[in-house]
Amino acid sequence: MVKDDYRPSRDEILRYIAENPDRSGKREIAKAFALRGGDRVWLKDMLRDLQDEGLLTKERKRLTRVGAVPHVAVLDIFGRDGDGVLLANPSEYTGAGSPPVIAIRMSRGASGPVPGIGDRVLAKTFPTDDPSGPAYTGRVMKIFEKRSDAVLGVFRVLKDGTFRIEPVERRQPELIVDKEFQNGAKNGDLVEVEPARASRYGLPRAKVLAVLGSLSSEKAVSMIAIHAHDIPHVFPVDVIAEAEAAKPATLDHREDWRDLPLVTIDPADAKDHDDAVFATPDTDEKNPGGAVVTVAIADVAAYVRYGKPLDREALKRGNSVYFPDRVVPMLPERISNDLCSLREGEDRPAIAVRMTFSSEGRKLRHSFHRVMMRSAAKLAYPQAQAAIDGVPDDKTRPILDSVLKPLWDAYAVLKRGRDARQPLELDLPERKILLKPDGTVDRVIVPERLDAHKLIEEFMIQANVAAAETLEGKKEPLVYRIHDAPSLAKQESLRDFLQTLSLSLARGAQMRPSQFNGILERVRGADNEALVNEVVLRSQSQAEYSPKNIGHFGLNLRRYAHFTSPIRRYADLIVHRGLISALGLGPGGLTQQEAERLEEVAALISATERRAMAAERDTVDRLVAAYLAERVNDTFDARISGVTKAGLFVQLPQYGADGFIPVSTLGGDYYIYDETARSLFGERTGKGYQLADRVEVRLVEVAPMAGAMRFEMLTDPKPLPGSRRSFHKAKGRARASQSRVGPRGRRR
User: Fold this and answer.
1) Which of 18, 130, 514, 745 is the most exposed place for a label (fewest CB within 10 A)?
2) Distance between alpha carbon 573 and the CA centroid of its chain, in Å?
């Protein structure tokens, strides 16, 4: 029983937060300790003090101990204790110092494979009371596919007839293979090898376990990323069998919308079409200038049912993975490119949302429908835009007035609402690699950002909002797409950086995207525009999936869920099933068993999304490195994309790939790393290099299969922004953090 005048100690508050990660909001803490009135003000001040001292951090409107392990986390098992209990570390740990140790337990009544050393598992974690033992216990929920100690490499036959393994990871050493362990590998094969124990002298040896394919074939570079990141890419027999046996959906439980001229607008090379759009002016006299927007999304839930082989494989993949030379789909082609793809002129099942907006772009109402539709036209973004710009072709001319112009009129309405909402407006152009028929790089382009792209994007955002609002209103479990505000630590770091440019960012517990937009607007067109955009981006949290809603900071939306791409994202399929259940739209809804697993599923698909992003990025690096391998000693225009104590990362804007310049090659001055200003500057001269600087570099070394490039700086260091006083402050900060490095990288 808590006394009325009781105030918990700091340790009691910290202990409560550690033991109750799901109930650690300010209100929940106050309720737990029966704090009322003035005591709640006291609690607010206490929590702020604990954050300022670095003991707590705020994530998703909940407080957590700094360095604490999430309640549901991916863990890597590394060993056993003296009693044989398995021990693990978080696979992703951002706290200070060594990652915490977790003692592994199996879920009650669990059956199936038992985890072992080297496994990666999904587990619920619980803090312990034992100061001499592991900081947490973990209850295993799922074991990921087992990985051996094998590594990937490219089999090379040298001129003297010996065999080597060329590394495909930047930190991986070169390996020797003896003839008896060649296992049929040929020059240029991508192989999986088992490294032997390193000898005292010479390179370590390895044994070829499997030949995965030849690098002389197309699509070989993406195959490296597929294997390196354990991305499932071959559909099991039972999954293919279920997909091939699927029959086209019928009108049962559906409204007939086949006469509505919905159109798809996608990239020109798109093979699956999961969204179609239509719009008209609102004829309601009470809503002058308003618009009615209809978005229809492929009804994947009609074919992929919970617990079936198709569903299990889709969850395992989590999402489709897009490489420059191939797509690894979440669903087999029979589903993704045929039965679910909203093909022109063919009957297809869909879940549609009809939304009515006021003339100011405010959504007044919406309704969901399970329908049968027939796409009136398959259009590419440039094709639709050209028609609006006065250059229609044979396909767009007949629908210009009846379909396309009303779409653009409706977009003008929605844009007013977007402008009023003020989502985060970062200007970071995306690059696209175009390949030759042999799979090598032809060129890298920055596709033009058209109004057609923005129209579809805004229509999809509003459909996603409508889905989240409907499910929340019906109290139906769902997976939100959440994006937290920048942490207090990142806000303070950004604030310090902006001060070096004489820019200010207001303090306050409730940051808004508009505050960042104000900063970006002030530097628009200035020399440091790219720098500020980059640093603001890096201050942001990472979006993820969760059954607990905290809103989407970047889009400035209170409720948001992914609904519009169920062909390529499992999260959207969950939302579709929820809508079917909540609105009574027929079979294929969310089951009770699935609803109970949403926390686990959200963690899994967040992990597969990060896996896909890493694989896609690695593939681009390898493709560009291979493309530039014959241009060693050439000079390039570059931009500094990262600054560390060890040196500078530079990006070639023309190609979108990164390389490294070691600090030891920058000259005879001693360079000091200023974390606040994102710069390296010379101790004697005060001149140096800063994030986003445009520089000229020479390519001196390439490791194509590892995607690694080393450059030499050709541009002289420049005086950095700020007064001499600022220089001495930065110098003092660097000395305090022992970040002073010499021309050969040694510390002084």
Assistant:
1) 130
2) 18
Residue at 524: amino acid letter: R
3-state helix/strand/coil string of 291-353: EEEEEEEECHHHCCCCCCHHHHHHHHHCECEECCCCEECCCCHHHHHHHCCCCECCEEEEEEE
d(CA 368, CA 18): 41
User: Mean pLDDT over residues 630-636, rounded?
Assistant: 94
Query: Which backbone phi and psi does 445 adopt, to 5 degrees?
Result: -125, 160
In DSSP notation, 471-524 reads: HHHTT----EEEBPPPPHHHHHHHHHHHHHTT------SS--HHHHHHHHHHTT
Instruction: Give the span between the Cα atoms of 122 and 607, in whole angstroms.
Output: 10
Q: Give the whole-angstrom CA distance, residue 171 versus residue 173.
A: 7
DSSP 8-state symbol, 402: I
Q: 668 phi and psi, to 5 degrees?
A: -80, -10
- d(C-alpha 510, C-alpha 507), whole Å: 9
Q: Which two tokens stand for residue 642?
A: 């990262």
Which of 84, 69, 76, 164 is closest to 124 using CA atoms? Answer: 69
Tell me how far apart the alpha carbons of residues 275 and 255 are, in angstroms, rounded to a whole number.
17
Per the structure block, which two tokens stand in for 355? Answer: 């939304």
Q: From the CA atom positions of the chain, what is the Rg in Å?
A: 28
* 577-597 pLDDT, tens digit each: 999 999 999 999 999 999 999
pLDDT per residue over 703-712, tens digit each? Answer: 887 888 999 9
C-alpha–C-alpha distance, residues 4 and 605, integer Å: 45
Helix (H) or strand (E) holding 571, with range, is helix 570-583
Residue written as tokens 């919905």? 262
pTM: 0.78
